[in-house]
């Protein structure tokens, strides 16, 4: 179903609440990759040109309903001001007297960034009262946060109950590009899943097994599968609650026609620090007191070979702690394999896109998506709540 877009409504002089996904990777208060801000610019600039009052809202990290200083959106407001060439106002809350006053003082074409919506626990609970409070700040709701569209939260879904709700340009483009690539994908179709949001993303694997020809698992996600295979995992990031599910998924892959590729070797270290002692070991020999922080060279070669055979590749989640050069080789190898392939390639997710940018191959990827979990759920065939909430054309 086609959704109404920001072009389908009159926004001039209106207060427009735009949900963006400014959940950018940070090192302290330095934004290490601003792709998600860059990709939201067309909607923001269009609204400015149309003379709307642009009220931006986003989450950053997972502060769990508390004010956490490192998750303030202040560095984002600064970067956005630089990119727009115009001062972006910033308030310290998303609801209440301070935003209300700032909005009352906005002129047409002004841009204001609200504070991290997840400082309120009501956001992730999709609390009705909070959604209504957000809605009262504006006349129109625009959802441009594709990266958070798989979340049924107050600022992504709940608010749409109370305002005319339309898609932004980024949201439209993401749905179109992903739709083209994954509806009747060219085969072999390979999906690669890694990263650290294991309990969030392991659930998508079951449905993916019905869609892809090859499923590659690396990064933190692979550790839970190692445990499921009966290997020791030392101090690695493992989700004990998901080990049984991982076992079932391994069995399901065997009984379906899907090739499930898991790491056979790993880079282990004594600590998650760039200078920590490290070595490469087979996954069957992960020592106690060590942690898996990257896939090993043999796994990287196997994964790259599978990518070479593919006609469509979707990748979300780095193969290791790529932020530290010592543990970035696996992620770099996979990024290069995608870049060198003739397949339709899609890379999604804040950190995965940062990794591809770090390797310098983003221009060799068919579609850079701002959503990781959102892309995977879209690929599963799920209706994303942030999209469902928008008005039909
Ligand atoms: N073996 C591992 N152990 C711990 N963290 C890991 C491991 N492999 C990858 N990561 C971390 O996963 C994070 C990214 O995960 P995720 O948020 O799921 O990806 P994306 O943002 O691309 O969707 C990175 O910060 C990376 O350091
Ligand atoms: O970074 C995000 O997802 P991603 O890591 O799957 O790309 C989105 O901003 C959603 O964040 P969330 O997974 O904390 O809801």
Walk me through the topology:
Elements: E1 15-19, E2 26-27, E3 30-31, H1 35-49, E4 53-57, H2 74-84, E5 89-90, H3 97-104, E6 111-113, H4 121-124, H5 128-135, E7 140-143, E8 165-167, H6 169-182, E9 189-193, H7 198-208, E10 214-217, H8 219-228, H9 243-255, E11 259-261, E12 265-269, E13 278-282, E14 291-295, H10 297-309, E15 312-316, H11 329-340, E16 344-348, H12 350-359, E17 367-369, H13 373-380, H14 385-388
Helix pairs in contact: 1-2, 7-13, 8-9, 10-11
The protein binds adenosine-5'-diphosphate (ADP) and 1,3-bisphosphoglyceric acid.
1,3-bisphosphoglyceric acid is lined by residues 21, 23, 62, 147-148, 151, 197, 349-350, 371-373.
Tell me what the structure shows:
Pathway: Carbohydrate degradation; glycolysis; pyruvate from D-glyceraldehyde 3-phosphate: step 2/5. It catalyses: (2R)-3-phosphoglycerate + ATP = (2R)-3-phospho-glyceroyl phosphate + ADP. It is an enzyme of class 2 (transferase). Helix content is 36%, strand content 17%. With 393 residues, it is of the alpha/beta class. The protein folds into two domains: 15-168, 3-Layer(aba) Sandwich (Rossmann fold), CATH 3.40.50.1260; 176-380, Phosphoglycerate kinase, N-terminal domain (Rossmann fold). The strands form four sheets. The protein has a six-stranded parallel β-sheet with strand order 5-6-4-1-7-8. The chain has a six-stranded parallel β-sheet with strand order 11-10-9-15-16-17, with helices on both faces. Strands 13-12-14 form a three-stranded antiparallel β-sheet. Helix 11 links the parallel strand 15 (312-316) and strand 16 (344-348). The protein starts with 14 loop residues before the first strand and ends in a 5-residue tail after the last helix. The relative contact order is 0.14. The mean pLDDT is 97. The chain binds adenosine-5'-diphosphate and 1,3-bisphosphoglyceric acid (X15).
């Amino acid at each position: 179903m086609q959704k109404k877009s920001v072009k389908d409504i009159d926004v001039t002089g209106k207060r427009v609440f735009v949900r963006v996904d400014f959940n950018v990777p940070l090192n302290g208060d330095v934004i290490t990759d601003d792709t998600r801000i860059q990709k939201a610019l067309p909607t923001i600039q269009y609204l400015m040109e149309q003379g709307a009052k642009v009220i931006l809202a986003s989450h950053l990290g997972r502060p769990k309903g508390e004010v956490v200083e490192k998750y303030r959106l202040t560095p984002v407001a600064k970067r956005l001001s630089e990119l727009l060439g115009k001062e972006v106002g910033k308030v310290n809350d998303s609801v209440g007297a301070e935003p209300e006053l700032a909005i009352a003082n906005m002129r047409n074409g002004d841009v204001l960034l609200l504070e991290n919506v997840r400082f309120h626990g009501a956001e992730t609970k999709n609390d009705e009262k909070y959604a209504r409070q957000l809605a009262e700040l504006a006349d129109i709701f625009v959802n441009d946060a594709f990266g958070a569209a798989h979340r049924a939260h107050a600022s992504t879904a709940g608010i749409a109950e109370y305002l005319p709700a339309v898609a932004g340009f980024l949201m439209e483009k993401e749905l179109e590009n992903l739709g083209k690539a994954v509806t009747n994908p060219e085969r072999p179709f390979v999906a690669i899943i890694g990263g650290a949001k294991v309990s969030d993303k392991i659930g998508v694997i079951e449905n993916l097994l019905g869609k892809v020809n090859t499923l590659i698992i690396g990064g933190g996600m692979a550790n839970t599968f190692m445990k499921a295979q009966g290997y020791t995992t030392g101090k690695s990031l493992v989700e004990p609650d998901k080990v049984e599910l991982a076992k079932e998924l391994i069995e399901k892959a065997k009984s379906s026609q899907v090739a499930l590729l898991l790491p056979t070797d790993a880079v282990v270290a004594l600590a998650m620090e760039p200078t920590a002692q490290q070595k490469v070991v087979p996954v069957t020999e992960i020592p106690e007191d060590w942690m898996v922080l990257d896939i090993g060279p043999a796994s990287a070669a196997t994964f790259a070979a599978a990518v070479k055979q593919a006609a469509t590749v979707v990748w979300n989640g780095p193969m290791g702690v790529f932020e530290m050069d010592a543990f970035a080789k696996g992620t770099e190898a996979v990024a290069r394999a995608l870049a060198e392939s003739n397949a339709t390639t899609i890379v999604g997710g804040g950190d995965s896109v940062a990794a591809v940018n770090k390797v310098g191959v983003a221009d060799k990827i068919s579609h850079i998506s701002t959503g990781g979990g959102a892309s995977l759920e879209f690929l599963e065939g799920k209706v994303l709540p942030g999209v469902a909430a928008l008005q039909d054309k």
